[in-house]
Specification:
This protein is α+β, with helices and mostly antiparallel strands and about 240 residues long. The protein has ten helices and eight strands. The strands form three sheets. Strands 1-4-3 form a three-stranded antiparallel beta sheet. Helix 6 crosses helix 9.
Length: about 240
């Protein structure tokens, strides 16, 4: 968090992806000539002591030992260019935003269920910023961005409904909660023929590959149970439609 704040102060909040000079070269990019380095704190290995110093250090308790930090130079992606004749490493996972309205009819069905069964107020309205929506468990409210395509709104509503069903940040860490609910979203959307691979896979990977795999494995039963419950909502026709069939 301290390094994030340091970067924000040095770039007026515009930093996006930072790395050291050599790391950028390894990724296939080179820092442009004349660019000014950004400074962050990084741990530094303890320097080697002579025998007398090592004996004194051994006598110290673990509580008295300190990790030494020093400032180090990094550069933002806006300060680098791809190296010529090199295929640079992509800095973001590929993402294909949902479009179309093929599943728009399921959005209201799920919204009605959230209101009647979960007791949540559901609003579909314009939302400022990149967030497609959110779930406020304290206020028992779900908001979905109205500016997105209807299929994208359904995907967001499934995601937030899974949060409303108990996968919140009090019960789980934020990273694990997001992996769980997006895994649920992927399964549920697939069951009704809506492919979320272009969004769900980069989204889950963005929370950390190792933690994502661990969360999906450890909470597989939870994911399966939530997915089945939401699938029933979307696949089973409402009473009025069933009566007219």
């Amino acid at each position: 968090m301290r390094n994030v704040l340091l970067l924000a102060l040095q770039t007026e909040g515009n930093a996006s992806y930072v790395a050291g000079f050599k790391r950028w070269l390894a990724l296939g990019y080179c820092v442009r000539r004349g660019e000014q380095a950004l400074r962050i704190f990084a741990p530094m290995p303890r320097r080697r002591r002579d025998d007398a110093e090592q004996a004194d250090a051994a006598a110290q308790s673990d509580d008295e030992r300190r990790v030494i930090f020093t400032t180090t130079a990094v550069f933002d992606r806006a300060q680098v260019d791809p190296l010529p004749d090199v295929d640079p490493t992509p800095l973001q996972a590929p993402c294909e935003p949902l479009s179309g309205d093929s599943h728009a009819h399921l959005r209201e069905r799920l919204a009605d269920w959230c209101r009647s069964e979960l007791g949540y107020n559901v609003e579909i309205r314009p939302v400022a910023g990149p967030a497609g929506g959110w779930c406020d468990t304290k206020a028992r409210a779900i908001v979905v961005d109205a500016t997105g395509a209807p299929n994208a709104q359904l995907r967001t509503l499934i995601h937030e409904a899974a949060h409303a069903m108990g996968v919140d940040y009090r019960s789980h860490s934020r990273e694990r909660a997001e992996v769980i609910v997006e895994s649920v979203s992927f399964i549920v959307a697939s069951s009704v023929g809506l492919d979320l691979g272009g969004e769900s896979i980069p989204y889950v990977a963005g929370w950390g590959e190792d933690d994502a795999v661990q969360a999906a494995t450890e909470f597989a039963e939870t994911i399966d149970g939530l997915a089945k419950r939401l699938e029933e909502v979307l696949i089973t026709p409402p009473p009025a439609a069933a009566g007219g069939a």
